[in-house]
């Protein structure tokens, strides 16, 4: 990450600065023609030296639109959900009509 003590900001080093902003804000994300636009935007992000800073910013502010740090809004929602998810633990076995006891008896035999 770039140092906040000087006048530079991570956006000063983003290679998308000279690109058409519309490329990074498709009208939708599902249509095949839009998939090409998303792939083109992600290709630019893939060569950018500040992709991690960009993604971190988008996740921190909850950016709802556009391609940021090489991710779509759905991908960022997934990342936020995974980061905020509680640790998973095994659920208890629930017996319905004695199925569990019958299964255990079969295994013991």
Automatic annotation (TrEMBL):
The Fe-S cluster can be nitrosylated by nitric oxide (NO). Its cofactor is [4Fe-4S] cluster. Keywords: 4Fe-4S, Cytoplasm, Disulfide bond, DNA-binding, Iron, Iron-sulfur, Metal-binding, Transcription, Transcription regulation. Residues 15-78 form the 4Fe-4S Wbl-type domain. Binds 1 [4Fe-4S] cluster per subunit. Following nitrosylation of the [4Fe-4S] cluster binds 1 [4Fe-8(NO)] cluster per subunit. Signal peptide: none annotated. [4Fe-4S] cluster binds at residues 16, 45, 48, 54. It comes from the Bacteria. It is found in: Cytoplasm. Acts as a transcriptional regulator. Probably redox-responsive. The apo- but not holo-form probably binds DNA. Belongs to the WhiB family. This is Transcriptional regulator WhiB. It comes from Actinomadura miaoliensis. The gene is whiB.
């Amino acid at each position: 990450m770039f140092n906040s003590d000087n006048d530079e900001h991570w956006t000063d080093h983003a290679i998308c600065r000279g690109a058409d902003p519309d490329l990074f804000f498709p009208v939708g994300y599902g249509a095949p023609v839009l998939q090409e636009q998303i792939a083109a935007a992600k290709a630019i992000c893939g060569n950018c030296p500040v992709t991690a800073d960009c993604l971190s910013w988008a996740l921190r502010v909850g950016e709802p639109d556009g391609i940021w740090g090489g991710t779509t809004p759905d991908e960022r929602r997934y990342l936020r959900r995974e980061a905020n998810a509680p640790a998973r633990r095994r659920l208890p076995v629930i017996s319905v009509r004695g199925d569990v006891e019958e299964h255990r008896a079969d295994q013991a035999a």
